[in-house]
Amino acid sequence: MNKPLILLMLLMLATMELMAQTRVVTGQVLGTDDKQPIPGVNVIIQGTNRGAATDFNGKYTIAVETGDNTLVFTFVGYKTQTVTIADREVVNVNLEPEATALDEVVVVGYGIQKKSDITGATASLKGDVLLQQPVLTATQAMQGKVAGVQIISSGQPGSSPQIRVRGVSTALGGTTVLYVVDGILTDDISNINTADIVDMNVLKDASASAIYGSRGANGVIIITTKKGASGGLKINYNNNIGIRQAANLVEMANSAEYSNYVQAATGAAPPTSAYNTDWYDVILRTAVQQSHNLSFSGGTDKVTYLFNVGYLNDQGIVINNDFERLTLRFNNEFKISDKLSFGIQSSYGNSINQNGFGNINIDAFGNIGAVYNNAYRAAPIIPSIVDGKYGNTSAYQNVGNPLLDVNNNSIEVKENRLQGSGFLDYNPFPWLKFRSAIGADWRNSLNRGYYYQFDADEETFIVAGGNQYRTQSGLTVQQSQAFRWVWDNTFTITKSFGDHNLVFLGGTTAERFDLHYFSASRRDVPADPNLWYIGVGDANTSQNDGGGDAWARNSYLARLNYNLREKYMVTATLRMDGSSRLPEKNRWQQYPSFGVAWIMSREGFMQNQNLFDLLKIRASYGKVGNDQIPTNAFTQTVSLNRPYAFNGSATPATNGAQINQIIDPNITWETTEEYNAAIEFEILQSRLTGEINFYDKKVKNALINVPIPRTVGDIDGVILTNVASIQNRGLEVVLNWNQRVNNNFSYTISGNATFNNNQVVDLNGGQAIPGGGIGAAQGFTTYTDNGQPVGSFYVLRVIGVFNTVDEVQQYQNQQGNLIQPNAKPGDFKYFDKNNDGKIDDADRVFAGSYQPVAYYGLNGTANYKRWDFSLAIYGNVGNEVYNGKKAVRVEGKDNVERDVVYNRWTSANRSQKEPGANVGNLPASDYFVESGSFIRINNITVGYTFPSASLQRYSITNFRIFVTSQNPFTLKQYSGFTPELPGDPISSGIELSAYPTTRTIAAGLSIGF
Amino acid sequence: MVFNVMKMIKEFDLKKATRKMLLIAGAVWLFIACNDDFLNVPIQGGVTTKTDPALAQKLVTGVYNSLYQADSWGNGDVHGFAFISVTSIISDDADKGSSPTDQAVPVGDIDNFTLTPTNKFCESLWSGHYNSIGAANQALKALEVAAVSEDLKNQLIGEVRFLRGYLYFNLVRMYGGVPLVLRVPNDATDANTDPAFQTRASADDVYQNIIQDLQFAVDNLALKGVNPPGNATKGAAQSLLAKVYMYKASLAGNDLADWQKVFDLTDAVITSGKYSLADDYATIWRQVGENNSESIFEIQTGSFNNANLNPDLYTVCQGVRQGGVGGWDDLGWGFNTPSVNLLNAYEPNDVRKAGTVIFIDNSGARNGTILWDGFRVPSSDSVQNLYYNYKAYTSRTREQFANSADKNRPKNIRILRYADVLLMHAESAIHLGQGDPDGKINLIRDRADLPPKSGVTIADVWNERRVELAMEHDRFWDLVRQGRAAQVMIAAGKTNFVAGTHELLPIPASQILLSNGKLTQNPGY
User: Fold this and answer.
1) Residues whose CB falls within 8 Å of the CB of residue B8, separated by 6 or more in sequence, listed in order
2) Per-residue pLDDT reduced to its tens digit, A785-806
3) CB-CB neighbors (< 8 A) of B330 in chain A
4) What's the CA gap between A771 and A985, in Å, rounded?
5) Does A261 touch chain B if contact means CB atoms closer than 8 Å?
6) Which long-range CB contacts under 8 A does B200-204 form with residues at least 24 apart?
7) Is A192 helix (H, G, I), strand (E, B) or coil?
8) Cα separation of A183 and A345, whole Å?
9) What is the mean pLDDT of residues A449-461?
10) Is the distance from CB of A726 to CB of A699 less than 8 angstroms?
11) What is the pLDDT of residues A428-449, one digit of tens each?
């Protein structure tokens, strides 16, 4: 044999021997949650320091020697697994994720907490979920996504929706939720760009919001804006462009139908006309809306920054209405040392709203606000505009031409808002942190209303005459400036002793608000927009006015979080609030709260069951307050500028004053006490999660503007006083299902439903409160009384329609009095509740409430390969709506709805639900009360994300395009424009001139570099 | 620069830094926490009774200002559309006007006596008068402690009590007995517990109170000419008190003691020599006739802050209204149109007819009507109604206003004038068998270009009252006190009138509700 061969044989022998002692084991590690391979898992042979790591495909190879029995697989975020090798060559392992949803961090008042430690009722929404929807504010995007939170929106550009958390818990107009943006308290987030939001946390129950004391009664929404992250510069651009249209318009009668009805109602046919005007068509248009956002962010270990620019433009669906907003945001954080860090968040917003509906104080003649109402009333036989000349509606009926109103009034509201906050965190010791945060909000708005001059002659109109004209042009300018600052100083102590973990927070906060406003008007200003300045007008027609407001608050707060072994949690908070808005003797109030929680699934006896991945039970009690009352509510003030012309027209009048308000000098805080009990659970490998909350919330000393007898001498007949208790009891159910079917397809379905029962109890003085007065022959339409929801409808009951004169004669009470002696065939027959032989206010009955029995949302998402799909549904059940526009028909010549024309009572069609043709002025009855239940598809979105590999050569890190539709479909029973009618608590749910709901289709993209 | 700062901070001595931070934090807290004044924020722009020493006088002006209230569909009406409806449209002197269905509820209901307690105008009249009474009570309260001379104080108190008397006189004529509110409630509880605010006093009690208020005014007010004409005068108080006694006397079946008071008071006004009949009847209600020799008390209107100052809509709601084709701009809404019944009440050649009624040209000749200032009103094919109230006409071209372009032009409302005093004197003279009723009546007839009468009877005086004070808010209440309301209304075609019910308006249902049923309704409603 030659030497190489022997060497080779020896080597082979050696190798064979080695091989007999060491073998290779391979396998793949997958995650149990998504069944995906996990790279970077440490595979260690137990008892040794030999190991390997899984590769990109989750596969590993490890050399195993005899005597090695066990492999240990570890990876951050997953539970460690120990597996016996035995004789296997392939050992595949599935690792279970360690983190459940409970370890998510939630922002609570003045700090953050793990979701598992929270004892109160909270809900979270991520910013990118909100961003999908082409709406103005993040609260609008929240609709249907959070149990217990009812969002009532108005379609108007530039308007914020009304929010009710767990039912109506106050009876006063000031019901806004408290917003906390980056720790700074504010009441209005219309200037916050949704693209800047990382997440929104809603504190629903009193124990969660008690830390905000007097502000917490209406619920608290905490918003965190984006911060930069360390790493290189990241650029992100996203946009959203779409078109909007009015949805669910009411069909009005056309000329032929109108003539038929007016003939029947008044006996006289209206003049024949070649025109057939659809007035809604005239004033509405398809509007374009678009929004663009560009952000730059980045940082190092010490400094992070974020800069966002956003632009939004929403043409309204009513012509000449336009809303534009520009926002800039600059967030910066500096880590100066291990112990000291500070940060700044600043944002600037500029918005211009042209001819919006809500600008009552600048819209001096109310023309823009009346446009929508006028379109309802204007007769179809008058043309809107022909060859540049307007149809003269006021020459025929008492209504202005809505198109002319829109064109001859220019109302512009410009707002600048600068919001900033800065914080300083100091950690002298690991267990102690001080934080001082100061926030400021400066708001300046300039409103300008110009009213064009025009005559009711043949230059303007086809037919001259009527009373729609303006002899002299007018200009009104208003300027207001508001400044608000908030300063928090808190310290937090975090300590653990064995199994006991404690976090204690203490601190104080102070707040101040100042407002100045000034307005001036003059007449005879030319129509050129470049000349719209007060100085250009006739000084002889000069008028001016101005005023201001100021208030302050001061508070002390403390909170203790304790948990034992992360299984038993206790939270206690105490807040003391003082407010300048209350008389000195009632100025300070304490708000305590207490909550406990038990994570049952972490108990020993629960380890053997397979049903619950998580089971948590919690209960809480809290007391919060509401001080949102006008600053002059308890002080008697004198009403100025009450002149009298002692010399007739010979000389200017002498000035005078009046004391014409009765005030309650003893008003005090509204306080809300709330009990909450809940179960949170996760089952089926956390694929099904859910939460059930029971709550019982009682508002004491609710502040209401109570009508008082006129003999008392109060000029508006109401006094603000603490007058009742209001109770809300309910149940919230949330269920979420998420399922990863395979690598390519996964989906989630989540639903939430809230059942709420609202009732007034303990009405002080026993006197129920009428409200919802809408004029004409209606009187009041709501009544707030013990045992009924706030603002329930209280109207006459219609029991049929008189078919013949005989029926009128036969409708008598026991004494033989004709109950409705003046009725004619075709008139409504009303129920005589008290049998007194006449129909009057004493015969009114309760007819439901605008507050829903339940409201719910259903949201689904699906991901298939690179496609994503989401659907959001929202609905209300059991609420009633009052059709006010139909009710205030008082003129025989006003237009009618098409349904009314065809379904009306006639001697041939003896409807028992619709009256015969009439000229209006009907009393308030349940004919006008309609079901407000609705179900709406809020949003459908389909998106596609481009594969990252193909984008890398352009330095693009992600690129997604999507198509979305907002409010594509609504199913409702209500015959009017919209069943969503925000309003003040004792007169809500009444449609008078509501802006219609809109339907939007938009497309957009999101691209990151 | 940022990096330098960071370096500097790093170099701090840590312990020192800790102590310093703790000190600063503590100081900050102490500052915020101990500053009690921080929460004492005065109301911005809120004038309180303590900040103005001249408040009492301003409050008196404020009471006069409250007479302007004309929010007929809302918070209160004293001399607005609602006032016109229940004094004029309701009577046989005037028809509703405007188009047939315009304001059928509430005005048509008032006109036809089909009104119910939910009538909006009834409610706003109640509210408006009590708002004014409240303003009066506040003024009286402030005057008690005001730092002014005794004479001025009595004058001012006299003026306020005159106005309060006038307001209660209106209330008792409209509703009968009403709550007698003579003071300011201390607070809401006081208002809820004191029965005076929520129970109706009897009509007699109300009259007693009016008489007390007006008697004080008679005793303390200055004569005409001493103060600007808008201020109440002794003569105004005497005339109003005479009228009150006249109503009281008639309603009690002609109580002669009260008629004597009427006679004496009117005599005092006549002999004061401060008043005389104006020469031209037609000018009385024009701007040139403001505060003329005949004027005793007027609701003054004018200008303030570059704007018209007047009861809202008083003139507009009565202005000539365009109704048919033609394209002519109207002067107003066309309500309160003189009735044919009124036209027939004038004797031939009575100049007062032409001074009271605008006749629309219905001849077919299309000449139109030329008004006193040259304005041409088109003929009946362009205009809604055939007759309009000339006394409510304001001239855009020949009268002065702060804002002439606005149709809502001011016009003084003549509440009391010398002719009324003469008529009251004559009527009381006939009842008592004293004085010279013929002479007084003939002064009036002479001015009207009518032949004198002798041996005038009560019926003559009543007819003269009707045509002299036509469309001046007197007719309906006068008929009620004469006892003839039912008879005259039914004869005029208003057959829904029920004697014993429709002499009064219903108490507003909303107020009965708010009083928890303590207010009782008038019979028949």
Assistant:
1) none
2) 888 998 899 999 999 999 999 9
3) 465, 467
4) 9
5) no
6) B200/B176, B200/B507, B200/B519, B200/B520, B201/B177, B202/B177, B203/B172, B203/B176, B203/B177, B204/B177
7) coil
8) 10
9) 89
10) yes
11) 988 999 999 999 999 999 999 9
Does the CB of A267 have a partner CB in chain B at under 8 Å? no
Residue A271 one-letter amino acid = P
Q: Regarding predicted confidence, which is higher, A740 or B369?
A: B369
Task: Find the residue in B nearest to A465 (Cα).
Answer: B327
Predicted confidence at residue A4, as pLDDT, reads 59
Residue A11 pLDDT exceeds 60: no
Mean pLDDT, all residues of chain A: 85
A436 and A508 Cβ atoms separated by less than 8 Å = no
Q: Residues in chain B with pLDDT < 70? A: 1-36, 51, 323-329
Q: Residue range A334-356: average pLDDT?
A: 89
Residues present in chain A in total: 1009
Element containing residue A500 per DSSP (H, E) = strand A500-523
Q: What is the pLDDT of residue A978?
A: 86
What residues of chain B, 151 to 180, have a C-beta less than 8 Å from chain A?
Answer: 179
In A, which residues are within 8 Å of B231 by CB distance?
646
Residue with tokens 């179960």: A679
Asked if A798 contacts A827 with a C-beta cutoff of 8 angstroms, the reply is: no
Reported for A683-687, long-range contacts at CB under 8 A and 24+ positions apart, including other chains, are: A683/A611, A683/A612, A683/A613, A684/A613, A685/A32, A685/A33, A685/A613, A686/A33, A686/A100, A686/A101, A686/A613, A686/A614, A687/A737, A687/A738, A687/A739
User: Which whole number is the average pLDDT over A407-413?
Assistant: 90
B307 touches chain A (CB under 8 A): yes
DSSP B63-95: HHHGGG-EETTTTEESSSHHHHIIIIITSSSEE
- From the list A584, A649, A709, the residue facing B515 with the nearest CB is A709
Pick from B39, B326, B403: CB nearest A578: B39
Is A459 near chain B, with CB under 8 Å? no
Tens digit of each residue's pLDDT (9 = 90 or more) over A718-728: 888 887 888 99
CA–CA separation, A925 and A826 (whole Å): 16
Q: Across the interface, do A719 and B188 touch by the CB < 8 Å criterion?
A: yes
Assembly ipTM: 0.90
Which of B15, B304, B400 to mutate to test binding with chain A, by most A CBs within 10 Å of its CB?
Answer: B304
Work out the pLDDT band at A1, boundaries 50, 70, 90.
Answer: very low
Report residue A361's pLDDT band, with 50, 70 and 90 as the boundaries. very low
Q: Residues, chain B, total?
A: 525
CB within 8 Å of chain A, chain B residues 112-141: 114, 116-118, 120, 126-127, 130-131, 133-135, 137-138
Please state, in angstroms and rounded to a whole number, the distance separating the CA atoms of residues B128 and B134. Answer: 10
Token digits for A28? 């793949």
A703 to chain B: which residues are within 8 Å by CB? none
Which of B18, B39, B133 minimises the CB distance to A554? B39
Residues 665-724 of A with CB under 8 A from B: 665-666, 707-717, 719, 721
Runs of H (alpha helix) within B40-187: 55-65, 81-84, 109-112, 120-144, 150-175
For residue A542, list chain B residues with Cβ-Cβ distance below 8 A. Answer: 306
Number of Cβ within 10 Å of residue B312's Cβ equals 18
| B116 in Cβ contact with B525 (< 8 Å) | yes
For residue A608, give the amino acid letter: N
Radius of gyration over alpha carbons of chain B, in Å?
A: 29
Chain B touched by A250 (CB under 8 Å): no
pLDDT at A586 over 50: yes
Do A981 and A928 meet the contact criterion of CB atoms below 8 Å apart? no
Distance between CA atoms of A931 and A972, rounded to whole angstroms? 8
User: How far is residue B441's CA from residue B424's CA, in Å, rounded to a whole number?
Assistant: 10
pTM assigned to the model: 0.81
